[in-house]
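Target protein
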Amino acid sequence: MSIQNVEKDHSRFREIVKGAVRKNLKRYVSQGEILGKEGGKTVKIPIPEIEIPRFKFKGDGESGVGQGEGEEGDTLGQGPPQPGSGEAGDQPGEHELEAEVTLDELAQILGDELELPKIQPKGTASLKVEKHRLSGVSKVGPESLRHFRRSFREALKRQIASGLYNPNDPNIIITRDDKRYRSFKPQMSQESNAVIIYMMDVSGSMGDEQKEIVRIESFWIDAWLRHNYKGIQSRYIIHDAKAREVDRDTFFRTRESGGTMISTAYSLCADIIDTEYPVEDWNIYPFHFSDGDNWSTDDTKRCMQILNDVLLPKSNMFCYGQVKSPYGSGQFIKDLVASFPDEEGMILSEIEDKDGIVESIRTFFKKGK
């Protein structure tokens, strides 16, 4: 089999895998079953629908393996019992194939299925990023980067100039001085960069189920934004009656029992933006998740002031996801609607349960901001 045929078959298999992912996308998003299978830039996805190709032996009447009485699919032989657990059954088991899909492919599938428009970076600001490309030729370098044609040309020029070249016996010998190598040259390119600032209420009313919803949704938010931007930074803020910045693992595992003052998180988020992410250089995406409880109307007024003065003017969009909780009042999203009835830069989403994650993501990104 030729390399071209192998590449063609591999490409076709990749399309089959993507098709299976599309078919089961809502399940993958809502259940979060792929989050524990992340590996760098790829994820492993269980796909039960794909049949693995296998050989079938068919003879022309001669004896051999697979010949004799029986029907297709019958068990071959009756081996001795093997150790295991449970009782024997007469039904086939389900075998899932784990296929690797890049995060970028996964985000593209998400965007296609939810019909999300490609994000347009805010303004024209971008950062200068230095990249190294194979764009030059050098006399030194590793053999893996040897430029054969340039090396051959140098050897030919040398032999002609020295009178050693014989057209009747064109034997070209490449010496060390003839060798040429591809070399990297730094190039500056303009790239839009973005920062995602996640904020979450971790007070006693936010239980494990609510935090799991936030964990799953943030994975897909990350995937979609990284698909649209070359450079992404993520920051994490948790709050009850007081806010603090934490790492990713702490963000999803912390549970407090205190009260809730949302303004402490908004104030910390505003400070981070003001000191580290100038709006002319960064695309800024604050996401806040809570169950809608806040300590007092005075603190809610403080939240609206910070949103109006800092977060909304400096962000591509401000996203608030309210996760339903049996202990939460759900009042905060109503206060946001009342305070900013016509604010296009504020995106609000109510998430009833895990099945609501897909629609929440669509709500956040359907405007392409």
Summary: The first strand starts at residue 38 and ends at 39.
